[in-house]
Design a protein that fits this description.
- It is a single chain.
- The chain is an alpha/beta fold and about 375 residues long.
- The protein has two domains: about 20-145, Rhodanese-like domain (Oxidized Rhodanese, domain 1, 3-Layer(aba) Sandwich); about 155-375, 3-Layer(aba) Sandwich (Rossmann fold), CATH 3.40.50.
- It contains 17 helices and ten strands.
- The protein has helices spanning about 20-30, 40-45, 60-75, 75-85, 90-105, 115-130, 140-155, 170-175, 185, 205-220, 240-250, 260-285, 285-300, 305, 310-325, 335-355, 365-375, and strands spanning about 35, 50-55, 110, 160-165, 180, 225-230, 235, 240, 255, 360-365.
- The strands form three sheets. The protein has a five-stranded parallel sheet. It has a three-stranded parallel sheet with strand order 2-1-3, covered by helices on one side. The chain has a two-stranded antiparallel sheet with strand order 7-8.
- Helix 2 links the parallel strand 1 and strand 2.
- Helix 3 (about 60-75) packs antiparallel against helix 4.
């Protein structure tokens, strides 16, 4: 059977099966319903949903060829080219992959960008092979708009912002706090110069999708107060949605206060012990340690202007010596540069920023005291 890539095809083959997905988007997210994304890989990489698997109708090159043909020669020529590109063994192999996905995920959905030509073609081929499988009405675009609307809804909640010096444990705190939203978890970044992980950070679209997905799974009523960690406009390379950022600037603050020694130990465990293990698990012992060393060196380099040239040079030497000692099994030498980094860079910067928000502070205390306060609220 030839591929029909026309947008409004309704003739021939099986009838198009759709569910009323405008009512189901929320349940799809809550239940982590499997989704088969039939867009090209380049589209999928720009933004996708957490439970989606990319099983494209056309690969990047085929999609580009059809698009160029459509632009230069019109729809009929593009349809003819599409029929030629995805046929024979090419079609058979992709149909087999779709069939495998459906068998493994019988309760799922498929979608393309707008729920039109590509998803309908895949759906029809599956129907002809004996499989009925529903598509998402409106496709990725409709689902994405739904998630953006949910982010706007999040910003309408009463909020409490969790603040505190670097290393006081704000992110772990959220896991013990009812009605919390983990912005850094959605962003895939911890917000600081050393905040990246081994895996690449979420792009802006994926960050917004993950943020909405997290909010939906919380199943919050609109009057519920939500707790979010204090963040600037950006978390790594992504930025907060403007409506949420504005709401956060008006919300009351709860400030965690812990000693320098406590915070230093948290930073040591988070950025030295755990990150070493993660890099070596990903790349092997030798290459993983090299990658970890580059991660630390790059993190310090990013704050060189605030440290000043002389102080940056001193801490860089201490850091380099600590990395050598770490290879000899002596990790504690990292404390020699982490401690001044906290006390001379992060703490003064935090105190200045907190001073600008002093009138919004409603409680200050250690982790246990702050948690008790929020639970009472």
């Amino acid at each position: 059977m030839a591929i029909d890539i026309s947008e409004n095809n309704t003739s021939g083959g099986a009838p198009i099966i759709e569910r009323d997905d405008s009512a189901n988007f929320r349940s799809i997210i809550r239940n982590k319903t499997p989704l088969m994304d039939v867009r090209a890989p380049i589209e999928f990489e720009k933004g996708a949903f957490e439970q989606a698997i990319n099983q494209p109708l056309m690969d990047n090159d085929e999609r580009a060829q059809v698009g160029l043909c459509y632009k230069n020669k019109g729809q009929a020529a593009a349809i003819t080219l599409g029929n030629k590109l995805v046929s024979g063994d090419n079609k058979a192999n992709r149909l087999a992959q779709w069939q495998d996905f459906v068998r493994e995920n019988p309760q799922g959905y498929l979608y393309c960008f707008r729920g039109g030509l590509r998803s309908q073609t895949v759906q029809r081929w599956l129907k002809e092979s004996g499989i009925n499988y529903p598509l998402i009405t409106g496709g990725y675009k409709a689902f994405r708009q739904f998630l953006l609307n949910e982010v706007e809804q999040l910003a309408l909640h009463p909020l409490i912002i969790l603040a505190g010096n670097t290393g006081c444990g704000k992110t772990p705190f959220l896991s013990h706090c009812a009605n919390s939203i983990d912005l850094e978890g959605a962003a895939g970044h911890r917000g600081s110069s050393f905040g990246g992980f081994v895996m690449a950070q979420s792009n802006q679209i994926t960050f917004e999708n993950k943020l909405a997905e997290q909010y939906i799974r919380g199943d919050y009523s609109i009057e519920q107060r939500l707790v979010l960690e204090d963040e600037g406009r950006q978390i790594g390379s992504v930025h907060l949605p403007e409506s949420l950022r504005h709401a956060m600037t008006l919300a009351p603050l709860v400030v965690i206060e812990e000693s320098l020694d406590y915070r230093l130990e948290q930073i040591f465990q988070e950025y030295i012990i755990k990150m070493t293990a993660q890099y070596q698990a990903a790349y092997g012992a030798e290459q993983g340690f090299i990658a970890f060393s580059e991660y630390l060196q790059h993190g310090l380099f990013k704050v060189r202007k605030r440290l000043g040239t002389e102080r940056y040079g001193q801490l860089k030497e201490i850091q380099s010596a600590a990395l050598v000692n770490q290879q000899n099994g002596q990790q504690q030498y990292h404390l020699d540069w982490l401690k001044p980094l906290l006390s001379e860079y992060y703490d003064p910067m935090y105190q200045y920023q907190l001073g600008l928000k002093a009138e919004r502070i409603v409680f200050q205390g250690n982790n246990a005291e702050c948690l008790a306060f929020l639970n009472e609220k």
